[in-house]
Specification:
InterPro entries: UROD/MetE-like_sf (IPR038071). This is Uroporphyrinogen decarboxylase (URO-D) domain-containing protein. By secondary structure, this protein is of the alpha/beta class. The protein has one domain: TIM Barrel (Alpha-Beta Barrel), CATH 3.20.20. It is about 45% helix and about 15% strand. It contains ten helices and eight strands. Helix 1 packs parallel to helix 5.
C-alpha cells in the first residue's frame, strides 16, 4: 500500500491506494465526512493546468496509420465524486448526496469550473478524438444525467467541435434507461457500449436511436466462458443485428 499525504492549505487529505491490480485503486476514499469537502474544494479551486502534448505526439508517431490516438479529459464533476472521491460502494455517494446535498453540489460546481480550461487544452491537442469522462451506468439515473451530465457535454462539445475534434464518452455499463437522453447529447462516439447479455441495450437498437453517433463496442466477456459454440452463435447473431456495420 502507498500512503499518500498532501498539504492543501486548509487541512490535510489522506487516502490509501493498492497496487494489487493492473493499476492502483483506492482502498480509502478522500471524502469520508462533511468536514472533507472544504479540503477538496480548496484543492480544486487552486489547481492550474498547463498543456503538455509530447506524449500524444509520440504516440501518434508510433501508431502511424495503424490506428487512432485518443486523449482524455477527466470525469464529469458528479462522476468524479461518485467514482473516485466519495465512492459508490455501499451507496456512499447517494447517502452523501441525500445527507449533504449542498456540499456535494457545491463541490461539483467547483470541479466543473476548475476543469473548464482543459476543454481548450484538449481541443488544441494533436489527437483527433477526445474521450470525455465516462463509466456511465445505471448508477447515473436519468434525473442526474439530465441535470449534471448533459450540460457538461454541451459545454465540452461546443469547444471540441469548434476545433474539429470528435467527442467520445466511455459508456460501458447498463445505459438502457439513459438511451433517449444520450441521443440528445453532442457526443460523437459512444465508446465501450456493453451489448447483452452483460448490457441492457442491443447494438441494433442503439444504432437506430443514435443516428448521428458512432458506437464502439466489445465482445461480452460472459459469453467467452460458455465455450466456442456459444461464441460463434453470439457472433453470428451480432453480425446479423448490425447489418452493414455502418457507424460501428
Amino acid at each position: 500500500y502507498l500512503d499518500e499525504k498532501r498539504e492543501p492549505g486548509v487541512e490535510q487529505w489522506h487516502a490509501l491506494r493498492s497496487w494489487r491490480d493492473v493499476s492502483p485503486w483506492q482502498t480509502e476514499r478522500l471524502i469520508k465526512g462533511p468536514e472533507d469537502y472544504k479540503v477538496l474544494k480548496y484543492m480544486v479551486e487552486n489547481t492550474e493546468y498547463t498543456p503538455y502534448y509530447f506524449p500524444i505526439e509520440q504516440a501518434m508517431d508510433w501508431m502511424g496509420d495503424e490506428g487512432v490516438v485518443i486523449t482524455e479529459l477527466p470525469y464529469e464533476p458528479m462522476q468524479q465524486l461518485m467514482v473516485e472521491w466519495i465512492g459508490s460502494e455501499g451507496g456512499r455517494f447517494f447517502i452523501h448526496h441525500a445527507k449533504y446535498p449542498d456540499l456535494v453540489e457545491d463541490l461539483a460546481r467547483a470541479i466543473g469550473k476548475s476543469l473548464e480550461p482543459l476543454y481548450e487544452i484538449a481541443a488544441k491537442s494533436p489527437a483527433p478524438i477526445i474521450s470525455c469522462g465516462g463509466n456511465i451506468d445505471i448508477l447515473v439515473n436519468p434525473k442526474m444525467f439530465q441535470k449534471h451530465f448533459m450540460s457538461w457535454y454541451e459545454k465540452q462539445g461546443k469547444v471540441l467541435h469548434k476545433h474539429g475534434k470528435l467527442m467520445a464518452v466511455h459508456m460501458d455499463g447498463r445505459v438502457g434507461v439513459l438511451k433517449d437522453l444520450i441521443a440528445k447529447t453532442p457526443i460523437d462516439i459512444v465508446e465501450a457500449l456493453h451489448s447483452p447479455p452483460m448490457g441492457d441495450l442491443s447494438i441494433g437498437e442503439a444504432l437506430s436511436l443514435w443516428k448521428d453517433k458512432v458506437i464502439w463496442t466489445g465482445f461480452p466477456g460472459s459469453v467467452y466462458i460458455l465455450g466456442p459454440e456459444a461464441v460463434k452463435k453470439h457472433t453470428i447473431n451480432l453480425l446479423r443485428e448490425v447489418g452493414t456495420g455502418d457507424r460501428l
